[in-house]
Design goal:
By secondary structure, this protein is mainly beta. The protein has a single domain, classed as Pectate Lyase C-like, CATH 2.160.20.10. The chain has three helices and 30 strands. The chain has a 30-stranded parallel β-sheet that branches. GO terms for molecular function: polygalacturonase activity.
Length: about 400
């Protein structure tokens, strides 16, 4: 790990050690949601009880406050936890927090806002019951649709940790991070079937210094997606699949989007995903830049479209494919990418006609076509070589700058 990763790992360790020592010394204030009326029978609505427990913990002066969700299944219609708080907050989940069935149209299901010093910990689960609502997701056909709720939403959160928990079957995104700084997500499990619509594992936008570490994500959309304003993001040792891979974008869809800068994806595995490492931008007049991006040491296991830059991305009605993207993509490295591609086009670069890609680099790319029709190894390698030559010719035809580098 580099120095940034080591610093963040130390932060997680220090935070959790403090919490453990505090409990051993009786320093933590414990707020068991059952004492506020929560019933873990899988039927009773515990929304008010869990919010009352948080309010009491948040208003406790100084020290650390620990909210406990014990064993049991606690139904929560929606819960919004607003800070700022007077001390550190630990939200410890040992049981199951379960959503209501059906297409609840709230912005978020469990929402944390304006908290500096939050730890969401435990081996418990957030069950979004997404299977009861996915049929109501019509956003690809209806540009005026209303999104289903995100399972766990972090807004204006700083210096915080999410560790150990699981998110199951979210109605929309599993975890969304907005307008936040210095958050580490470590060792979480995210699970939904590959046909779950818009069920991104972790989505980040307008946030900086975010670390996603040592996690397993299986879902129906991007395992990790980084939108506009994502700065200094590390995705490290994440296993993804099924899903749509690890994506930056889509960018340029909305006015006044902030630049994307300092993205590192390192030591990850993508297995059976419909895309691999992807940068996608919308065909529009919105000008912004995505730069200083590194994808390194990534294993592809039977992955469609392992490496993609798509500057004509259009996932729903309401975009004009005749327009060209105004997003400048530059200073990008794909290094040490290896494994098997389920598509013959292992590297697919479609840059903007208006703002051509600049300083895109490939080093030590070793992707073999593992087609479905039982080709011999020699035939597979020949097909892949043909695909690489076609890519090079395509890059030449796009009149890209000379510093579009292919090494090894």
């Amino acid at each position: 790990m580099d120095s940034r990763q080591l610093c963040m790992s130390f932060f997680i360790f220090f935070f959790l050690v403090l919490a453990k020592e505090g409990r051993a010394q009786g320093a933590d204030r414990i707020f068991d949601i059952r004492k506020f009326g929560a019933i873990g029978d899988g039927k009773s609505d515990s929304s008010k009880a869990i919010q009352d427990a948080f309010a009491s913990a948040c208003n406790a002066a100084g020290g650390r406050s620990r909210i406990v969700v014990p064993l049991g299944t606690f139904v929560v219609k929606s819960a919004v936890f607003n800070g700022p708080c007077k001390g550190w907050i630990e939200f410890s989940v040992g049981g199951i927090i379960k959503a209501l069935a059906g297409p609840v149209n709230d912005d978020g299901w469990v929402v944390f806002r304006h908290i500096d010093g939050l730890a969401i910990t435990g081996n418990g689960k957030f069950d979004g019951l997404g299977q009861s609502a996915w049929n109501f997701n019509n956003c690809k056909k209806n540009p005026n649709c209303r999104d289903l709720p995100t399972s766990i939403q972090l807004e204006f959160i700083e210096n915080s940790v999410v560790s150990g928990i699981s998110s199951l079957n979210s109605k929309y995104f599993h975890i969304k991070i907005l307008q936040s700084n210095s958050i580490t997500i470590d060792g979480v499990g995210i699970t939904a079937p590959e046909n779950s619509p818009n069920a991104d594992g972790i989505h980040i936008s307008n946030s900086q210094n975010i670390r996603i570490l040592n996690s397993i994500i299986s879902t129906g959309d991007d395992c990790v997606s980084m939108g506009a304003g994502s700065t200094n993001i590390l995705v490290y040792n994440v296993t993804c699949g099924p899903g749509h891979g690890i994506s930056i974008g889509s960018l340029g869809k909305y006015d006044n989007e902030a630049d994307v800068n300092g993205i590192t994806v390192d030591k990850c595995t993508l297995s059976g995903t419909s895309n691999g490492l992807r940068i996608k931008t919308w065909p529009s007049d919105v000008q912004m830049t995505a730069y200083n991006i590194t994808f390194n040491d990534v294993v592809m296991d039977n992955t469609y479209n392992p490496i993609i830059i798509d500057q004509q991305y259009c996932s729903s009605k309401g975009c004009d494919q005749s327009r060209s993207s105004s997003v400048q993509i530059k200073d990008v490295w794909f290094k040490n990418i290896r494994g098997t591609s389920k598509s013959q086009s292992a590297v697919n670069i479609q840059c903007s006609r208006r703002f051509p890609c600049y300083d895109i680099n490939f080093s030590n790319i070793n992707l073999l076509y593992g087609g479905p029709d039982g080709k011999t190894k020699k035939e597979l390698e020949e097909k892949f070589c043909v695909g690489v030559m076609a890519l090079i010719e395509k890059l030449k035809s796009q009149s890209l700058p000379n510093n579009f580098n292919l090494e090894n």
